Amino acid sequence: MSRQTEQSAGQEPFDVDDPRLTRFDVVREGARRDDIEIVHYEPQVVAGSKAERRLVRTVAGFFLLTGLAATAFLVIYIWWPWEYQPGRGGDKLYTPLLGLTLGVALLAVGFGILTWGKKLLPKEVSIQDRHGGVSTEDQKITGQTMAYMVDELGVKRRPLLGVSLLAGLAPVGAVVAAPLVGGLISDPHKDDQMMTTGFAPRDGQKIRLVREDGRPIRPADISAGGQITVFPGVEHGVSNRYADSPALLIHLRDADAEESRRNNERAGHGDYMWGNYAAYSKICTHAGCPASLYEQQTNRLLCPCHQSQFLITDNAKPIFGPASRRLPQLPIEVDAEGYFVARSDYTETVGPDFWERP
Amino acid sequence: MKRRKFDIAAAPANTGRAVDERFQVATPLRRLLNKVFPDHWSFLLGEIALFSFIVLLLTGVFLTFFYEPALTEVIYNGSYAPLRGTPMSVAYASTLDISFDVRGGLIMRQMHHWAALLFMAAIVVHMLRVFFTGAFRKPRETNWIIGSLLFWVGFLAGFTGYSLPDDGLSGTGLRIASAIMLSIPVIGSWVTAAVFNGEFPGTIIISRFFIAHVLLIPGLLIALISVHLGLVFKQKHTQWPGPGRTNANVVGERMFPRYAIKQGGFFMVVFGVIALLGGLFQINPIWLFGPYEAWVVSAASQPDWYVMFLDGSTRLMPDWQIDIPIGDGYVIPPLFWPTVVLPGILVGLSTLYPFLEARYLKDYRSHNLLQRPRDVPFRTGLGAMAVTFYVVLTLSGANDVIADKFQISLNAMTWAGRIGLLILPPLAYYVTYRICLGLQQHDREVLAHGVETGIIRRLPDGRFVEVHQPLSAADGNGHGELDYAGWVVPKKMNRLGALGPAIRGFFYPIEKPVEAPVSPGHPPVEPRAEREEIGSGETRS
């Protein structure tokens, strides 16, 4: 069965037009010229055998399945109801059916090709030389050639050329970089933007705390133990333009509020609360996610991104996790109309830490 | 004159001759057709990455036809009823349109995402293969470096793509990325302002990420992949040791037709699997997350799997803030270490590893034969250490979900991660090292004593012994003289041809089964002459 190639010494010279040569002989000679020796070559199935017919049927079956699945894909793509309808409906099956038919079509053609290649084609073992060796002579010749190029240029004898070329090209390099760098540079401290939020008073007017729908908040709107996310009551205050501004307004229970006031006093935030109400920045001082999971029983505020925990009754001090800085407190009071306002902006920098943070 | 008839049979030969006379391609073409590739399943892992990348390009081009990279605010009025009337960015609205109002758009989006996950997974598994088998050694250090760069560039591609829909999850990811950039000492705020053109989020970041995601990064990936493949082609593939295989040859099959056909079929299979995933398994259902709003986040917001190790490292980092009391005082936030320094170290270590190992072993020769992981216990141990480190970080990236599902304290999970990160990797090194030594010892034992036959014999004095089938002509003590050849040692009688080949056919045999050469339970046979030279389980019938 297997056709082992044997290299007999003293072979007659190869003539490609020799009619006695089979095509395989020519192929083998070609391989030899590429330093490849086909040492083992063996058909996997006997021509005309039952096994061969069976494999051919399998491969053909795969290919026909591809055609079938691909046609099904087209039919579904064109005629299946695909537009989104609320509730359960046929449209929910549109994408799964497309995936199923496309997947089956591609898998079948893949398996067909693989079976053809793996089972029907002859098995072979060929050995090719790697030619990993390096010629030190060639290395030297190339090296000398390059060195000679330097000689031809004569930079060694005429150093002014080299120096002036460098002096000329260096600014050109900078010219390439300048527009990109220059265009991208933007002063991070322009208008003190890293230190101010939407709660900074405008024209001496204190900014109201508003809900997500823009309505201002009265103290009676939050029950004891409750909390609400508040935004600066300015134009676009409830949007990503004021991404640093949102705060959590918490109505503490009496005992917690007492403790909180004591701790605020120590931190120099004695008058930041209003009654039992305190407001803290919602933007985590660690990575800037909204620290939004408030645990009523323990008065802890948890950031769901990296699990930093802040103790609200201790001036939002970080007590667990990677955060290293308190959540800034927003000083609040109630204006003449009975709505919450910010007495001033946050007195500490809001959001993630950075090098020059005061 | 008789008009010459056009001979269709001679047309290919004539065309070929005409082409060769002009371009002289016959010899190089034959070389290409004849190129020999070694075959082993583990050499196909990198192909999965390559094929996923092709699917990424195809589906990605489709998506660009419908996606609009802009943060301009619009009121959504598309098909998806629950979000109608919601203000959102054009980017998010157009992604919703791709999912609901473009025919077949959702499957393209999901296939794109699945292909990206598969791309990164295949890169990682391929790198593990290359690492554990020592395929990165000289002369292939360059390709190892390009490969590790491909991981990080792919990481960037994934992150920029993840950010484009501007949904609740991706906005949060972007927020964290801005915080990471901010944390860089001295230049942090300037870098962030340069990227976002001012304060987070600004209005331009999505269009910048878009051009990075569809032009700059894919361009870089294509360039790196081309060089990667070019080098594999030029340096020729590594091969496992085995009969006839040396450092100076390649044993395998010629590239055409069989090898190429198998590659083509494999591409179709990978493509098909991605199509099935994209159609049947929902991924990143952005319509459930809502548009990004800086004040909204939910628990269990995990990034894609290849980012989770960074998320984990960030969670495990203690709150060590460094204050520098110069002038007004400066800060290095704790976020800097796990998200900037750690990836930096990882890039450096992985890039330098081939050189560090060569230096440590004082081995500066070229290697084209692979090593079995068990034969280089220290490297396998180091690899196990790295994998453990990575797994602890990745699990910690989901520690809130684990805590929730298994009713464990969240803080306990964090502490378990912190302690595990320090203790488990050295432990993994030790255990792996011992396992490698054990496997080595067992190989030597089988080479010396033979294969366990499962036949128990009772000796005249009443002892029971198991009969071993020696692999070579045994000396007086039943010991052979086979050297370990760096390749699989047969350990079952089946591998020695003690059983006949499997009978083919599903319900009934399609051919008359071959007679089994040795019936089970037969006493040990004298080794056949041809077996003497081999240390391999390959059957060569």
Keyword list:
heterodimer; A: 358 residues; alpha+beta; 2 domains; 4-stranded antiparallel sheet; 35% helix; flat; disordered N terminus; B: 541 residues; mainly alpha; two-stranded antiparallel sheet; two-stranded antiparallel ribbon; 16 helices; globular
Characterization of this structure:
The complex is a heterodimer of chains A (358) and B (541). Chain A is of the alpha+beta class. Chain A has two domains: 129 residues, no CATH class; 136 residues, Rieske [2Fe-2S] iron-sulphur domain (Rieske Iron-sulfur Protein, 3-layer Sandwich). Chain A has six helices and 13 strands. In chain A, the strands form three sheets. A seven-stranded antiparallel β-sheet of chain A has the order 11-6-5-4-3-13-12, with no helix packed on it. In chain A, a hairpin with a 4-residue loop joins strand 7 and strand 8. In chain A, helix 2 runs antiparallel to helix 3. The radius of gyration of chain A is 39 Å and the shape is flat. Chain A starts with 22 loop residues before the first helix and ends in a 16-residue tail after the last strand. The N terminus of chain A is likely disordered. The C terminus of chain B is likely disordered. Chain B is globular and about 85 Å long. In chain B, the strands form four sheets. Chain B has a two-stranded antiparallel sheet. Classes of the chains: A alpha+beta (358), B mainly alpha (541).
Write the layout of secondary structure elements.
The complex is a heterodimer of chains A (358) and B (541).
Chain A: H1 23-33, E1 36-42, H2 50-79, H3 94-120, E2 123-129, H4 136-153, H5 159-184, E3 207-210, E4 227-232, E5 247-251, H6 254-267, E6 277-281, E7 293-295, E8 300-302, E9 309-311, E10 317-320, E11 329-330, E12 332-334, E13 340-342
Antiparallel strand pairs in A: 1-2, 3-4, 3-13, 4-5, 5-6, 6-11, 7-8, 8-9, 9-10, 12-13
Helix pairs in contact in A: 2-3
Chain B: H1 11-23, H2 26-34, E1 36-37, H3 45-64, E2 73-75, E3 87-89, H4 90-100, H5 105-132, H6 141-163, H7 168-182, H8 188-196, H9 205-235, E4 249-254, H10 255-280, H11 286-289, H12 308-316, E5 322-324, E6 330-332, H13 336-361, H14 377-396, H15 399-405, H16 410-449, E7 451-458, E8 464-469
Antiparallel strand pairs in B: 1-4, 2-3, 5-6, 7-8
Helix pairs in contact in B: 3-5, 3-10, 4-5, 5-6, 5-10, 6-9, 6-13, 7-8, 12-13, 12-14, 14-16, 15-16
